[in-house]
Amino acid sequence: MSPISPSRPLLRRSFVVTLIGALLSACSTLPPYRRPTVEIPTKYAGAAPGWAQAAPADTAPRGPWWTIFNDPVLNQLEARVDVSNQTVRKAVAQVQQARSMVDYQRAGFFPTITAGVAQDRSRTSQNVEGKSLAGKTVPDYSAGVSASWEPDLFGRVRDSVTGAKADAQASEADLEAVRLSISADLAVDYFALRSLDTQKKLLDDSVTAYAAALKLLQQQLKDGAIDASAVAQATTQLEATRTQDTDIDVTRAQMQHAIATLIGEPASTFTLPPNGSAATPPAIPVGLPSQLLERRPDIAAAERRVASANAQIGVAHAAFFPDLVLSASAGLESTFFAPWLSAPSLFWSLGPQLVGTLFDGGKRTASLHGATAQYDGAVADYRQSVLVAFQQVEDNLSALHSLTDEAASQQRATTAAELSLRLTTNRFNAGAVSYLDVVTAQTIALTNQRTADQIAARRLESSVLLLKALGGTWHGQGDGAATQDESAAASATRPVAPPAAQSSTTLATAPAAQPVPKPVGT
Q1: Lowest-confidence segment of 18-32, 204-218, 278-292, 488-502 by average pLDDT
Q2: Is the pLDDT of residue 1 over 70?
Q3: Which family does it belong to (predicted)?
Q4: What average pLDDT does the segment 406-429 reach?
Q5: How far is CA 399 from the centre of its chain?
Q6: What's the whole-number mean pLDDT along residues 193-222?
Q7: Distance of alpha carbon 443 from alpha carbon 200, whole angstroms
Q8: Mean pLDDT, range 437-454, rounded to an integer
Q9: Chain-centre distance of CA 51, in angstroms?
Q10: Which residues sit opposite 147 in a β-bridge?
Q11: Are strands 52-54 and 112-123 parallel, antiparallel or unpaired?
Q12: CA 265 from chain center: how many Å?
């Protein structure tokens, strides 16, 4: 017989160590995650004709998107949204809650350690046979520490952490979506109020002019130069215009109260001074349709929820495998207090436990099917979010394009109405027409001026809604070779763009070599 090789015990120990290491290493059951595919158009159908693609990244809007309107009052109001708006505060709390859930799930990687001290007295029945302590009262003093640890053999904890991280990133994207929505609502209400101020100034001036005309007509009636019908017509026109003027006050007060609520201030303590100056819609570079997936926080949130649902499939898969629990305890126990803290009172235990479910009536299979269905639903939500985003962009691009033409046409109509009013007034002063013709010309001029102001307000509103549909603010691509998960997380948590020198965002700019329609607002 050949002598036993001294390397055999070493091989056995190496095999045992390798086996234990393989058991303790996590074998995740998480399915490989791939971002759901969506059909992306090559260009926006509603973009103004004659626009080409270029890449002047240094002109891309940065930071707060509302600064593109160059309105100091709006900038001050928007700055108060993050501080005082209660809806934003709730979204911040939800982000903190989601982040705490990540810490909660991550705690599953570590053992649980408990410690305790106890003192009790017990008495065994005297009528029990075979017990030496029958009928005796026995005190018991104990103190001990116990620990248990469940190694993540099949990735249940890891998958739970992955899902919690995705949920936290989705909550962060939700926060950005809430901020974007609230800031857009504030901008819409603010420009609507500015439009009301413009119309209010127009009506105030009209009331002043009509009152002066009525006073002049009343004097002419006394002199017998005209009949009473002209005075009645002038009075009717004056009072009708005053009614419209008062109605503007009601609508403006409601708009001011809405702004107060958005910035978190009681309506009774908030006032916004009138400002009748006209605001001009800015030129908004819309970029490529594919970049919309990075700009929109609601799309980022939907994509992160797909990743979270995918992680839940891994958790459901892990339930089919057994759980290994390693537990240990040690302490001191004695019937008498005096020797309690001595060495003979020591007790300890150590041992593993492997537990698996053999039959549960299909509960785990049902959970897996439910997790898969939840994943399919999250994918559908993501794709629907993308479709809605493209619809919103196209809607507002079309609206801006049409309103630009409408504003130009209305401006021509307003100019013609003002000319008609001047000519009719001159003819009335010459005695060629009645005052009814003047009233009609004044009404037409006032209506056209108000229509022009309302179209300007609609253009501003569509500009705000387009910026909202584009994600408000965005960052360029090419920041580094990030993974799909990291890219999605970045789009959910980094609303501010990197420096312009590092950006490759493609913007829509008009070629200078040929005449084309000007951007909105120029």
Answers
A1: 488-502
A2: no
A3: Belongs to the outer membrane factor (OMF) (TC 1.B.17) family.
A4: 92
A5: 24
A6: 90
A7: 16
A8: 91
A9: 30
A10: 113, 328
A11: unpaired
A12: 22
Kindly provide the residue ranges of all beta strands, DSSP E only, lying in 274-419, ordered along the sequence. Answer: 323-334, 346-355
H/E element, 146: strand 137-149
Pick from 369, 261, 386: nearest CA to 313 = 369
pLDDT classification of 28: cutoffs 50, 70, 90: low
Count of other CB atoms within 10 angstroms of residue 436 = 12
- CA gap 137, 475 in Å, rounded: 76
- 113 sits in which H/E element: strand 112-123
| pLDDT tens track for 321-352 | 998 899 999 888 888 777 777 778 888 898 89
Q: How far apart are CA 505 and CA 286, in angstroms?
A: 10
pTM: predicted TM-score of the whole model, two decimal places: 0.76
SS3 content of the chain, % helix, strand, coil (to 5): 60, 10, 30
Whole-number Å distance between alpha carbons of 29 and 315: 7
Which of 32-36, 359-363, 490-494, 516-520 is modeled with the greatest confidence? 359-363
Counting every residue written for the chain, the total comes to 522
| Cβ atoms 54, 287 nearer than 8 A | no
Amino acid, res. 309: A
340 token code pair: 């309690």
CA 215 to chain centroid, in Å, comes to: 57
> 203 near 248, Cβ under 8 Å?
yes
Which among 166, 112, 139 has a CA at the least distance from the CA of 327?
Answer: 112
Query: How confident is the prediction for the chain on average, in pLDDT?
Result: 79
Q: Which domains does the chain have, with CATH numbers?
A: 24-110+152-321+363-509 (1.20.1600.10), 112-151+322-355 (2.20.200.10)
Q: Sign of the C-alpha dihedral, residues 168, 173, 179, 182?
A: negative
Contact (Cβ atoms closer than 8 angstroms) between residue 170 and residue 101: no
| Residue in the block written with tokens 């045992």 | 16
The DSSP code for 443 is H
Q: Do residues 340 and 141 lie in contact, with contact meaning Cβ atoms separated by under 8 Å?
A: yes
Report d(CA 80, CA 336) in Å as an integer.
68
Distance from chain centroid for Cα 85: 14
> Which pair of structure tokens corresponds to residue 214?
């009525």
What gap in Å lies between CA 505 and CA 54, rounded to an integer? 9
Q: Can you tell me the distance from the alpha carbon of 385 to that of 378, in angstroms, rounded to the nearest whole number? A: 10
* CA atoms within 13 A of residue 178's CA, in its CB half-sphere: 20
Contact at 8 Å (CB) between 340 and 334? Answer: yes
